[in-house]
Amino acid sequence: MTNVKLVNGLIRHIYRLGDYLHFPKQTATMPLFVRVRLLLPKQMSAIPTWIQGLLYIDIGAVVAFLLFGAAVFLIRTYLPKVGAVAWVTAKESILQPLFVILTLVGIFALFIFLLIPYNTLGDDIKLVITQGIILVKLFAVFLAVWTASSTIADELEGKTALMALSKPLGRTKFILGKYTGVMIAVTLLFLILGTFFLNTVSYKLVYDARESSKDIPAAMECARAVYHVLPVLVLAYLETLILAAIAIAISTRLPLLPNLTLTLMIYLLGNLVPVIVQSAVGQNPMVMFVANIVSMVLPCLDHFNMETAVMATTHISAAGIDTSVPWWYVIYAFGYAGLYCGAMLIVSLLLFEDRDLA
User: Fold this and answer.
1) By the 8 A CB rule, do 285 and 104 touch?
2) Selection from 184, 191, 161 nearest residue 60 by Cα
3) Would you put residue 255 in left (φ > 0), alpha (ψ -120 to 50) or beta?
4) Contact at 8 Å (CB) between 171 and 349?
5) In whole angstroms, what is the distance from residue 182 CA to residue 140 CA?
């Protein structure tokens, strides 16, 4: 009798949850075994569309997490020295309070963005997408700069790096391991916040439809809308890779505060590179020369910022979000980010090679 009462109580709580999620009510007088048998299939078919759409999104997120874990395993297996440094760096970053704070604050802020009324006459989804991408990107960049400074600059000042390099570990593998470890922590944060962000985009479509008394979009329509946001999120991640490489290069010479300041300046100037080059056209040859040098040295981060494309989109609905960001553009951006990260790692090695550790 006690077990039957526990099961009945559990089912009552499930029905209350179903009422909260707008599930259809079942007959309360049904026998226990009948209710248990009918509960799963009927309730699964009555799940709100935005939750059904999340199945497609979250399956992709699970695959991304598995691929991420497999990549970390392969690095530790086939690159043992680099993998050891990367694993220690990633654990230090993930276990520090900053990682937990950024994760919780990011999730809370993304949830708040979902509920804020923007009064844009049907374009609230644009602001939700723009604010969400900027928040995820800035949190990941801040974690990258903080981790790079705490794992390289602090170790150099505290002579901890001297002990590590006294072992059969070259400076090249040390820098590569540090950068890999920073990116492991940053990628994990990006996956967590990015997955939650895509979930909020899926629900925002249904939320706006309900607020406007329109037809509720189907599950595939929600999933298709999120799919069109993915290229913008991937570009934000590639921008984070570049800024993390820059932070690694700066941390070989400077501590946290100058590193954070210089990285912020590079971030701002990198977004203004096209404007600087365009404004120098027709000016003094020396001005044009300096503008070209700036465009060659600084990363052109404006190519990774597609928030303007989202805001300029004329139509955003559950039928699709045309952000004018094709996947071939993402492939080219990935190549540019790989080349620039490689160049910044070479600069890091040059700056670190003649650094006196004693």
Assistant:
1) no
2) 191
3) beta
4) yes
5) 10
Specify which residues 316 forms β-bridges with.
321
Taking residues 4-24, report their average pLDDT: 50
Contacts of 100 (CB under 8 A, 6+ apart): none
Q: In whole angstroms, give the CA distance from residue 107 to residue 192.
A: 9
Task: Give helix 2-20 / helix 32-45 axis angle, nearest 10°.
Answer: 20
User: Average model confidence (pLDDT) for the chain?
Assistant: 77
Distance CA(149)–CA(254), nearest Å, equals: 8
Determine what percent of the chain falls in helix, strand and coil, rounding each to the nearest 5: 80, 0, 20
The answer to whether 233 and 136 are in contact (CB under 8 A) is yes
Q: What is the DSSP string of 173-221?
A: HHHHHHHHHHHHHHHHHHHHHHHHHHHHHHHHHHHHHHHTT-PPPPHHH
Instruction: Say whether pLDDT at 159 is over 80.
Output: no
Q: Is the dihedral of CA 149, 236, 132, 68 positive or negative?
A: negative
Distance in angstroms (rounded) separating the CA atoms of residues 335 and 281: 28
Beta strands (DSSP E) in the chain are: 316-317, 320-321
Other Cβ atoms less than 10 A from the Cβ of 167: the count is 7
Return the minimum-mean-pLDDT range out of 110-119, 220-229, 260-269. Answer: 220-229
**What integer is the mean pLDDT of 290-311?**
78
Q: Taking Cα atoms as reference points, which of 170, 152, 172 lies closest to residue 161?
A: 152
Pairwise CA distance, residues 64 & 131, whole Å: 23
CA distances from 153 to 29, 206, 210 (A): 68, 47, 52
232: Cβ contacts below 8 Å, ≥ 6 apart: 129, 133, 306, 307, 309, 310, 323, 325
Cα 233 → chain centroid: 7
User: Chain-centre distance of CA 323, in angstroms?
Assistant: 18
| 270, 275, 278, 279: CA torsion to nearest 10 | -120
What is the pTM assigned to this prediction? 0.79
Residue 291 tokens, joined: 């503008």
Question: Residue 46: pLDDT above 60?
Answer: no
